[in-house]
Amino acid sequence: MSQPNSAHTPQLVTRDGDIIPDGWTLLADDDTTGADGPFILGFERALRELDSRNGHYGVRVLPADDIRLLEPFLEKITLIEVAFPGYRDGRGYSTARILREDLGFTGIVRAVGDVLRDQLFYMLRCGFDEFLVKDKDPSQAITSAAKRFQTVYQGAADTNRPAWALRHTQA
Amino acid sequence: MSATQSSAKMYKYDDFDHAFVRDRNIEFADQVARRLSGEITEDQFKPLRLMNGLYLQLHAYMLRIAVPYGVLSSKQMRKFAHIARTYDRDFGHFTTRQNLQFNWVKLAETPKILEELAQVEMHALQTSGNCIRNTTTDQFAGAARDEHSDPRPWAELIRQWSSNHPEFTFLPRKFKIAITGARKDRAAIRVHDIGLHAKPEGFDVYVGGGMGRTPSLGHCIRTGLAGEQLLSYLEACLRVYNRYGRRDNIYKARIKILVAALGPDEYKRQVEDEWARMDRAKVDAPVAEIERLKSYFPDPDFKVASFDRVAFERAQTADAAFARWIKNNTNPHKRDDHVSVTISLKPVGLPPGDASSAQMDVMADVADAFGYSELRVSHEQNIILPHVHKGDLYALYTQLDTVNLSTANVGKITDMIVCPGLDYCSLANARSIPLAQDISQRFEDAKLSDKIGDLQIKISGCINACGHHHVGHIGILGVDKQGIEFYQILLGGRADEKAALGVITGKGLPAEAVPAAIERVVRLYLELRTSDDERFIDTLERVGRETFAGALHEPA
């Protein structure tokens, strides 16, 4: 799924196609927070420390991390970064859907890592709303991904209605 | 022949389905253009083309076209003939996934082929890649006398749900679902990632079957699952697999490995937990949609004609070859005056599963004339006319005979499942097709073949088991021993409702020794069987495979 332009510097783009600055800092596990936030914690560290911390944090989630373990701390989390170390690893799609549809998370879900234009359609459907994309034109990539398919066949974490719902709406 | 042409009773695309395939084809045409212009490399193109069924084989690109659950109209079959003639070397190959492969297409022409396919509501999507593949089913669905639930509407429901599924397009490995609704399992559900048995009281769900390097039989994790909850249950099964299936080793990535590692009970617990938490109303199509899908699969308008039994029997007496074809190539139909006919694509000495464009045209013509315009592809790589009035059988047989499609060997020793092997595949160790040809020549004699009766030989050219050798009554596996092709023989496998895995018996054999070894095994069976009705597999199970081990090797 690599793109010819995947060598471009990653840029953060929203689901609406806006390029935005990244105001978050990923905190190394041995880094003590002293400077200004907002901070992103690693998954293990978040599990260890969020109980005793105040304020709002981001959490970086790797494919093997069980997102449901964050459930007790969700009110302190405003950003979840779901990492895709390689595009072939599809665990992050389940992570995002569980976050949105099962845990009811309403903060930002961001895809980072090997995020390429051909994956964006699926990510949009699974509930991601920010993407760190290596693409020449991230805005164009996201807007074209969003309208790539008129028909979807499943209910998911987005607002698209599956074909079966549309077929029986006005019957 | 078009005078009698009716419309096949099968699913028809509506605007949503047409739009989906159109959007996908536009996308792929753009990807091919980028590849041809050099904008993207072969490496970058590979995952994109694989999602559209385009493989790069030993000598050329191969395009694998989806035939949803093996159901075809005569119009679609004619389109295959046209594509074979126009874009390939005048033939196509029907696969064990009930699909069709064109082995010699040109990359630049693939968008055009996909456009032609879209005209007849077909595509090549999800015929490769780590996604949910074409759901397969009983080739006699809707026709078989032993059927209790028609699997086709459910297969169509699964087809749509699995199309471009946003969560399950990057699974650890490919994922295959099979569904049956009959007493006899002709869909091999226990050797699929998920096998479904549709019953009046609901679905039995089997998980974790498969072949390949680690063959295993699926475990039943649920019975009586309501049809209107099928999709959400499948979604829960897939989610657990997507999250926890291994991704570190391609050979341990299928769901059977996960189910074995967790144990079926623990896997089931996780699935049920996921299912309980899921917003099922969002996933499950409503009853109205299931009813809509069912409405596409009514019986055809069965021909009402008196069946002249006397003339039918006279024809069989006069033409022994016809009589033999009736005996071997027809399956009982739910109506007494009809049968299902299997057109064998296993003529002696030719590659199993291949059909020329001329043969495809004839199959389409006879489907229009005698079969309500409908055809099926079986996982045994044959073509089926599911509904044929008995009074039309002789005319049908005569037309098939003109293009070498009257081979009367269905279910017999020469009706083998065979992978493409070294002749096409870059993974294979062995030339499966020439070996199959050697074996079929040895059992060419019709009398001998009929005397042997039902016996399934399945041949794989490598451990990936595309030829289903684990579930052959006799399985043959090509292996590479220090650069030399060798064959291991497995005995006792079966894919039906008594599914079992074959066991390697005896030592490996060089290719030239295999046909004689098979013949010695078969001769021993003929000596040992208690009656003509005791099939090879029954004798084997009665006396044990060790009895046959000696026969595999030349007496010293």
Give an overview in words.
The complex is a heterodimer of chains A (171) and B (556). With 171 residues, chain A is α/β, with parallel strands linked by helices. Helix content of chain A is 23%, strand content 19%. Chain A has helices at 43-49, 91-102, 120-126, 138-146, 163-167; strands at 11-14, 25-26, 39-42, 57-61, 77-84, 108-113, 130-133. In chain A, strands 1-7-6-5-4-3-2 form a seven-stranded mixed beta sheet. Chain B has 556 residues and is α+β, with helices and mostly antiparallel strands. Chain B folds into four domains: 15-119, Alpha-Beta Complex (Sulfite Reductase Hemoprotein, domain 2); 151-294, Sulfite Reductase Hemoprotein, domain 1, CATH 3.30.413.10; 309-401, Sulfite Reductase Hemoprotein, domain 2 (Alpha-Beta Complex), CATH 3.90.480.20; 417-553, Sulfite Reductase Hemoprotein, domain 1. In chain B, the strands form four sheets. Chain B has a five-stranded antiparallel beta sheet. A five-stranded antiparallel beta sheet of chain B has the order 3-14-15-12-11. In chain B, strands 6-7-8-9-10 form a five-stranded mixed beta sheet. In chain B, helix 11 packs across helix 12 and helix 15 crosses helix 17 (514-528). The N and C termini of chain B lie far apart (60 Å). Classes of the chains: A alpha/beta (171), B alpha+beta (556). Chain A binds chain B through residues 1-4, 63, 87-91, 93-95, 97, 101-102, 118, 121-123, 125-126, 148-156, 162-164, 166-168, 171, and chain B through 14, 16-17, 19-20, 23-24, 27, 34, 39-41, 43-44, 47-48, 130, 160-171, 239, 242-243, 247, 277-279, 282-283, 285-286, 288-289, 292.
